Structures are given as structure tokens and as C-alpha cells.
Amino acid sequence: MKQYDLIVIGGGPGGYVAAIRGAQCGMKTALVERDKLGGTCLNRGCIPTKTLLHAAEAYAGCAHFETLGLSARNVSYDIEKVHAHKAEVSETLRNGVAGLLKSNGVELLSGVAALTAPDTVTIGDTRYTAKHILIATGSVPARPPIPGLDLPGVVTSDDILEGPAQDYRFLVIIGGGVIGVEMASVYAGFGCKVTVIEALDRLLPPMDREFGQSLQMLLKKRGVDVFCSARVEKIEQTPSGPCCYFTHKDTRKTAEAQGVLVAIGRRPNTEGLFPPGTEPDMERGFIQVNERYESSIPGVYAVGDVIGGIQLAHKAEAEGMAAVAYMCGKAPETDPRLVPSTETDKLLGVQMMCGRATDLVSEFTGAILNGATHKQLLRGMRPHPSFCEGISEALEAVDGMSIHSAPAKRALPQLQSTL
Questions:
Q1: Where are the alpha helices (DSSP H) in 5-78?
Q2: Which candidate, 57, 74, 358, places its Cα nearest to that of 222?
Q3: Could you give the residue ranges of the DSSP H alpha helices within 104-177?
Q4: 374 is known as an active-site residue
Q5: Which tens digits make up the pLDDT trace of 172-216?
Q6: Do 343 and 323 have their domain in common?
Q7: Do 199 and 120 belong together in one domain?
């Protein structure tokens, strides 16, 4: 039996960051991973999705070359090469994670882990003990009770991102959340006819209504059929592929396709982790933790998708580092659960739908952390021409003072913020 100070179960962003931080704090640390390092983010989530989106946008952009005075002939794509590039990007980043773990002295254990005692992790026939155990096993695609989900051609987001490359010409996507919308954008960019079916009344339901409405219009302009407030009844096999039967506004409809992507969200990945009688307190499958990320089992912590909340890589990373800090008797450097308790003139949050949104949103992180108001943010001058000018316009619009509302300025980034 081998002993450690910290055993981390799960090699995604929350897990590997916590393992590295634990080792840096002087703990003898091991990381257990059953599949590939990097978890959902590197292998079945944001990294491969963004890689595919970049390729699809570049290909679709060729259609607008003439307006720029450019020309390109016989532009085509090879879906297998596109996916090969995606796999190469993920592999490069996984190798980087492996290098970081090794250089920080974290021992990597491969296999399926089970928590057989409060201080014991079993992998196969081998037992390992640790003073602290951190669970960061992430999530897996949810599968609703829809007849026909086991038919050929019906896939999850994991399947479509890690499985064999499919050059769909007709694709039905069940679910209008982040995953469904991103994959609709990818395949529409490659010229696929996409149909999105969402049960709620708009796309991206957790976000502001205006976002879902604007995105629906954008997707329709790209040829995507969007049906909100729709209920899928069943999927049946036809000679040409799966056919989805659904009801939209009391009207029964069908959508035939070469494939059906089920993207209705993800559930916590805890299957096989706890033998009967060893489970911590859980709610709807999510591990319940206190403010220190400790479960009802003393010494057993959990972070990331497996505890619920927003499923974001950087949230899991912040939680992982915070949990390790608490293990070491320290206050975390970053509080991943900052929630304002009043409504004031302080900036509470930001939502963006514009070019370079992933770069622009970081400007608000420090502002929210320091309790800045929108007027304080307006004091800073932003250069022209730049995408960050959109931030100034959004802040000015709070007081109805924006001077950039004329049609000639509509080419600037459209940014919507929640203040």
C-alpha cells in the first residue's frame, strides 16, 4: 500500500491544477486518470470545439472574399483532416499537462479509481491511502428518456468530438444550449443543413433572453432551422438515417438527417466511484460540499462539474486551487464563488456576443473583483479602432449616453452587458 498526502481523482482542469498546486505546497501528490489527461475541456469540450469552429469560420469566410476584393477558387475542405488537426491540438496540450505534472513531481496513476474508505483509493487490486482526497471526475453527457437514442447515427457531444469524423450534410441537434449552438455553428459553416430543437422558449436558456433571440436570428441567417418550445417524442430509423419526431407549437413535425446529436446538458460523473455504503451526501448525483469544498466525508473534497454549478474549466481550476489551499490551512488566493449580496451600482456580471469576446471579457474580471461601477470603468480611455471600443459603448449605453448608435457605427462589436 502506497501512501500520499493528496490523491486527486480526475485529470481535467480542476484535477490537474489542484495536483500541481498540492505538489508545489509540499504535499506528496498522485493524480488518477482513467482516460486522457485534460478531461472534457481538452478532449471533448472547449478546445476541440473551438478548433473546429475556427476551421468552419475560415471556410465559410471564403464566401465573402469578393466583398473584400479577394478571390479564391476551388476552395474545399477535408473533414478527416479537419478532425486530425483538432486531435493534434488536443494532443499537444495533453502533452503539456503531462510535462507540468512530471516537472512538479506529481505521480500519475492510470486506471479506474474507487473510494473504498475515507482515506483509501483502490485502483484494480492496488490500494493507495492519503490524508486528503480530491474528487474532480467532471461530467458526462446526459441522455434523456427518448425512444430511439440507441439507434445508429444518434450521438452525444463526446461521440461527435472524439469519434470518427462525419461529414454530415443533414444534422439534427437536440438541445439549444452552449454545446448544441456551437456544433450547429460548426456544421452550418461547412455547409451542412442543421436543425436545432430546444425544449425551452429560446436558445441559451441560462443567459439573458436577448442573447438567445439574437443568436436564433444569426443562426437562421446561416440557414439553420431553429425550433424552440419544442418537445422531442422519438427517433426512428429510416433508409436514409435517423428521423426525429417532435412537437412544435402543438404541431407534429419530423426532421430527417444523417445524424442526430443529443446535446441537452451533462450530468456528474460518479459512476463506480463510491461502493455501496461509502457515498457522501449527494443531490441529483452532485456531490455536496461546504465552503471549503469538503464533502460530508472528512478529508474528501470535490470540485468542478461533479459538484454542480456553471460547467467551466476556469471555475474548476479556481475551485481546485481553493480546495488545496484549505487543505494546507491557508486562505485561497482566488475566491471562485464571489457573489454580490446587494444590488448596487457595482458591476455584477457581463455577457458578450461579439467578435473577440473571449479576449474582451477579461477586462471585467478585475473590475468585478474590486467592486467597480460602470462609471469608474468609463474613466479609462480605449483606443480606436479596436474591438474594446465596444466596452465603452456598452457602458455609455447604461446611462443612455452612447453617441455610437447611428447606422454607420453598427459594424462595431455588438456587446450586451448585465449590470
A1: 13-24, 39-44, 46-61
A2: 57
A3: 157-162
A4: no
A5: 999 999 999 999 999 999 999 999 999 999 999 888 888 888 899
A6: no
A7: no
> 162 and 235: one domain?
yes
* 253, 227 Cβ separation under 8 angstroms: yes
DSSP state of 65: G
Domain count, the chain: 3
User: Residue length, the chain?
Assistant: 419
Q: Which residues contact 311 (CB under 8 A, 6 or more apart)?
A: 139, 266, 305
- What are the pLDDT digits (tens) for 123-156? 999 999 999 999 999 999 999 999 999 999 999 9
Amino acid identity of 3?
Q
The one catalytic residue in 54, 85, 384, 404 is 384
Does 130 share its domain with 218?
no
Asked if 252 and 259 touch (Cβ cutoff 8 Å), the reply is: no
Say whether the peptide bond before residue 385 is cis (omega within 30 degrees of 0). Answer: yes
Residue 160 lies in a domain: yes
CA 9/CA 16 separation, integer angstroms: 9
Contact 353, 360 (CB under 8 A): no
pLDDT tens digits, 15-35: 999 999 999 999 999 999 999
Residues 214 and 230 in one domain: yes
Q: Is the domain of 217 the same as that of 232?
A: yes
| pLDDT tens digits, one per residue of 59-100 | 999 988 999 999 988 999 999 999 999 999 999 999 999 999
